[in-house]
Protein backbone atom coordinates (compact mmCIF):
# COMPACT_ATOMS: atom_id res chain seq x y z
CA UNK A 1 0.00 0.00 0.00
CA UNK A 2 2.82 2.44 0.85
CA UNK A 3 4.39 1.84 -2.57
CA UNK A 4 1.16 1.99 -4.59
CA UNK A 5 -0.17 5.41 -3.46
CA UNK A 6 2.92 7.39 -4.59
CA UNK A 7 2.76 5.63 -7.96
CA UNK A 8 -0.90 6.60 -8.40
CA UNK A 9 -0.03 10.24 -7.74
CA UNK A 10 2.78 10.17 -10.31
CA UNK A 11 0.75 8.31 -12.91
CA UNK A 12 -2.00 10.93 -12.84
CA UNK A 13 0.40 13.79 -13.54
CA UNK A 14 2.16 12.13 -16.50
CA UNK A 15 -0.72 12.65 -18.95
CA UNK A 16 0.05 15.18 -21.69
CA UNK A 17 -2.07 18.27 -22.10
CA UNK A 18 -3.05 17.21 -25.62
CA UNK A 19 -4.58 13.92 -24.45
CA UNK A 20 -6.64 15.37 -21.59
CA UNK A 21 -9.16 18.06 -22.39
CA UNK A 22 -9.84 20.46 -19.47
CA UNK A 23 -13.16 19.94 -17.71
CA UNK A 24 -13.38 23.41 -16.10
CA UNK A 25 -13.56 26.68 -18.03
CA UNK A 26 -13.37 30.15 -16.50
CA UNK A 27 -14.44 32.90 -18.90
CA UNK A 28 -14.85 36.66 -19.01
CA UNK A 29 -18.07 37.71 -20.66
CA UNK A 30 -16.97 40.69 -22.71
CA UNK A 31 -20.38 41.73 -23.99
CA UNK A 32 -23.85 40.30 -23.90
CA UNK A 33 -27.50 41.17 -23.99
CA UNK A 34 -28.51 38.24 -21.82
CA UNK A 35 -28.30 38.20 -18.01
CA UNK A 36 -25.70 39.20 -16.86
CA UNK A 37 -24.55 41.68 -19.50
CA UNK A 38 -20.87 41.67 -18.49
CA UNK A 39 -19.37 39.27 -15.98
CA UNK A 40 -17.59 36.05 -15.13
CA UNK A 41 -18.65 32.58 -16.27
CA UNK A 42 -17.64 29.24 -14.78
CA UNK A 43 -18.41 26.07 -16.73
CA UNK A 44 -17.88 22.49 -15.62
CA UNK A 45 -18.02 19.73 -18.24
CA UNK A 46 -19.95 16.81 -16.75
CA UNK A 47 -18.98 14.53 -19.65
CA UNK A 48 -17.78 14.95 -23.24
CA UNK A 49 -20.96 16.68 -24.41
CA UNK A 50 -22.71 18.22 -21.39
CA UNK A 51 -21.61 21.26 -19.40
CA UNK A 52 -23.08 23.10 -16.41
CA UNK A 53 -22.57 26.85 -16.33
CA UNK A 54 -22.92 29.66 -13.81
CA UNK A 55 -22.59 33.40 -14.52
CA UNK A 56 -22.46 36.43 -12.29
CA UNK A 57 -21.81 40.01 -13.23
CA UNK A 58 -23.16 43.42 -14.00
CA UNK A 59 -26.97 43.55 -13.61
CA UNK A 60 -27.66 39.88 -12.95
CA UNK A 61 -26.79 36.22 -12.62
CA UNK A 62 -27.74 32.96 -14.31
CA UNK A 63 -27.19 29.22 -14.25
CA UNK A 64 -27.59 26.83 -17.15
CA UNK A 65 -26.78 23.73 -19.07
CA UNK A 66 -25.05 23.27 -22.46
CA UNK A 67 -25.03 20.40 -24.92
CA UNK A 68 -22.06 20.13 -27.33
CA UNK A 69 -22.86 18.39 -30.63
CA UNK A 70 -19.27 17.13 -30.89
CA UNK A 71 -16.94 16.60 -27.95
CA UNK A 72 -14.74 19.70 -27.49
CA UNK A 73 -11.13 19.21 -28.59
CA UNK A 74 -8.08 21.42 -28.66
CA UNK A 75 -7.68 23.37 -31.94
CA UNK A 76 -11.25 22.76 -33.05
CA UNK A 77 -14.58 24.49 -33.57
CA UNK A 78 -17.61 23.10 -31.77
CA UNK A 79 -21.28 24.00 -31.71
CA UNK A 80 -23.54 23.90 -28.68
CA UNK A 81 -27.10 24.64 -27.57
CA UNK A 82 -28.31 25.40 -24.09
CA UNK A 83 -30.80 26.81 -21.66
CA UNK A 84 -29.86 29.44 -19.11
CA UNK A 85 -32.44 30.84 -16.68
CA UNK A 86 -31.33 34.07 -15.06
CA UNK A 87 -32.37 37.14 -13.15
CA UNK A 88 -31.42 40.66 -14.14
CA UNK A 89 -32.66 44.17 -14.88
CA UNK A 90 -35.71 42.94 -16.80
CA UNK A 91 -36.69 40.27 -14.26
CA UNK A 92 -36.59 36.50 -14.54
CA UNK A 93 -35.78 35.30 -18.08
CA UNK A 94 -34.64 32.15 -19.90
CA UNK A 95 -31.95 32.46 -22.56
CA UNK A 96 -31.80 29.70 -25.21
CA UNK A 97 -28.40 30.14 -26.93
CA UNK A 98 -26.89 28.47 -29.97
CA UNK A 99 -23.11 28.87 -29.74
CA UNK A 100 -19.99 28.59 -31.86
CA UNK A 101 -16.88 27.81 -29.77
CA UNK A 102 -13.27 27.93 -30.94
CA UNK A 103 -10.75 26.07 -28.76
CA UNK A 104 -7.11 27.15 -29.19
CA UNK A 105 -4.01 25.07 -28.64
CA UNK A 106 -3.39 26.52 -25.16
CA UNK A 107 -6.91 25.70 -23.89
CA UNK A 108 -8.36 29.14 -24.58
CA UNK A 109 -11.99 29.25 -25.67
CA UNK A 110 -13.58 31.99 -27.76
CA UNK A 111 -17.35 31.65 -27.74
CA UNK A 112 -20.13 33.53 -29.53
CA UNK A 113 -23.77 32.65 -28.90
CA UNK A 114 -27.11 33.99 -30.05
CA UNK A 115 -30.72 33.07 -29.29
CA UNK A 116 -34.06 34.16 -27.87
CA UNK A 117 -34.34 35.59 -24.37
CA UNK A 118 -37.82 34.75 -23.08
CA UNK A 119 -39.47 36.47 -20.12
CA UNK A 120 -41.35 34.24 -17.69
CA UNK A 121 -43.19 37.13 -16.02
CA UNK A 122 -44.89 38.55 -19.11
CA UNK A 123 -45.22 37.91 -22.82
CA UNK A 124 -42.16 39.73 -24.20
CA UNK A 125 -39.04 38.15 -25.66
CA UNK A 126 -36.14 39.51 -27.67
CA UNK A 127 -33.03 38.22 -29.46
CA UNK A 128 -29.85 38.16 -27.37
CA UNK A 129 -26.18 37.39 -27.85
CA UNK A 130 -22.92 37.20 -25.92
CA UNK A 131 -19.18 36.91 -26.53
CA UNK A 132 -16.87 35.18 -24.03
CA UNK A 133 -13.14 34.56 -23.78
CA UNK A 134 -12.12 31.80 -21.41
CA UNK A 135 -9.38 29.43 -20.30
CA UNK A 136 -9.75 25.74 -19.59
CA UNK A 137 -8.01 24.19 -16.64
Task: Give the rounded overall mean pLDDT.
Answer: 85
| Low-confidence runs | 1-18
Number of helices: 1
- Beta content comes to over 45%
DSSP, total strands: 9
Helix content: under 10%
The helix/strand class is mainly beta
**Whole-angstrom Rg:** 17 Å
End-to-end gap: 30 Å
Overall form = elongated
Commentary on this structure:
- The protein has one helix at residues 4-13; strands spanning 24-32, 38-45, 50-58, 60-68, 76-88, 91-95, 98-103, 108-119, 125-136.
- β8 (108-119) and β9 form a beta hairpin.
- Residues 1-18 have low confidence and may be disordered.
- The protein is mainly β and 137 residues long.
Write a brief structural summary:
The chain has 137 residues and is mainly beta. Helices cover 7% and strands 61% of the residues. The chain is built from one helix and nine strands.
Key structural traits:
137 residues, elongated, 61% strand, mainly beta, nine-stranded antiparallel sheet, 7% helix, 9 strands
Please render the helix and strand layout as text.
Blueprint: H1 4-13, E1 24-32, E2 38-45, E3 50-58, E4 60-68, E5 76-88, E6 91-95, E7 98-103, E8 108-119, E9 125-136
Antiparallel strand pairs: 1-2, 1-9, 2-3, 3-4, 4-5, 5-6, 5-7, 6-8, 7-8, 8-9
